[in-house]
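Workshop exercise sheet. Pairs work together: one partner reads the sequence aloud, the other fills in the structure field after running the prediction. Swap roles for the next sheet.
Pair: D.N. / O.F.
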Amino acid sequence: MTESSGTPVPAADDIGPHEDEPHQQGFNDRLNWLRASVLGANDGIVSVAGIVLGVAGATTDRTAILIAGIAGLVAGAMSMAAGEYVSVSTQRDSEDALLAKERRELREDPEDELAELAGLYVDKGLEPGLALEVAKQLTEKDALAAHAEVELGIDPDDLTSPWNAAIASMLSFTLGALLPLLTILLVPGDLRVAVTVVAVTIALALTGWLSARFGYGSARMAVARNILGGLIAMAVTHGIGQLVGTQV
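Structure field:
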């Protein structure tokens, strides 16, 4: 079926989002979780790898490496959780304030808000008459959700939880940090540095691929960024450890 302009028109049963494409509903929340988890894992891997390789460059004492690694893991996990909580709480406070303002405007001047919503749809390309009809129908269904989506880019029913983000960051940092810590402790002395670097490189490639896979980005670029940053961090910290170890 086509319109007079020749543009194909789908049947009513075919109307709906494509299952294999990202859409706004739920997508922002998934990206927030992905961002917190991937950043936490990457920070855990790189930070603790840098710490244990730096200490390993200065000493072969397994106890010193263990203490430094555990201290870095705990401090980093707590720092990530606190930072994520503060960041998302600030975002959540702003969203709550904007939604409260929108509720007040809808309560005090619903006609002006309806006209505003219709105007926003006109700006998106709808004809004025159609824009007004769409605005009316969406207002009847859920006025706040309609205005929040178009004006603010917010889903009132899908706000990010600061606690969820903090816990996700802390757990992902811890899991990421355990990889270099356990590797350098379990591998024999002569091989510990080389095996740790290889393990960390593989882990960074995996987290880079996952971030691209679930975020619909370029896997090649994400993997390359992760690996390059991790290798630089490990080389610098290990080199500093060797330099300090020879001087102290």
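Discussion prompt: The chain has seven helices and no strands. What would you look at next?
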